Amino acid sequence: MSSTAAHGLMGEGELNLENVVIPVSDVDRAKQFYARLGWRFDEDVAPMDGLRIVQFTPPGSGCSITFGLGLTSAAPGSAEAVLVVSDIVGAHKDLVSRGVDVLDVWHGPPFPVQARQPGPDPERASYGSFCSFTDPDGNTWLVQEVTTRHPGRT
Prior knowledge:
Order of helices and strands: HEHEEEEHEEEE
Oligomer: single chain
Largest sheet: 5 strands, mixed
Strand order of the largest sheet: 5-9-8-6-7
Strand content: 25-35%
Distance between the termini: 26 Å
Number of helices: 3
Shape: globular
Number of strands: 9
Radius of gyration: 18 Å
């Protein structure tokens, strides 16, 4: 095994996911939606014609999202991502209070949909309860309750 394979892509250093580009069709509508979620607004810049960069960061997250003009050829609504919370019921209530159309909390696997069981996991097992919502373009956000992380995760 090569040194790179043994230590990851960047050798022995860290490799942190810092930002994910989300494809949207209406930048201002997306900006209003993510602000309504209570995510930290980081920037809205247009350094040149045909390029606009808007960035938000979910509370407590080390990873931000970016959307805008001239950033990606991906179709609006094609992104899927996971948000992790310590209290799925509280997170669901917060989303509802912000006017977000969020699916009811379920437990069991997130996919296939037919395997979902209503309500949070009866034991509140870590990685076992979910809800989800979409932004105005249909980008999907799966919200997962994690109370005890798998070994090696922070």
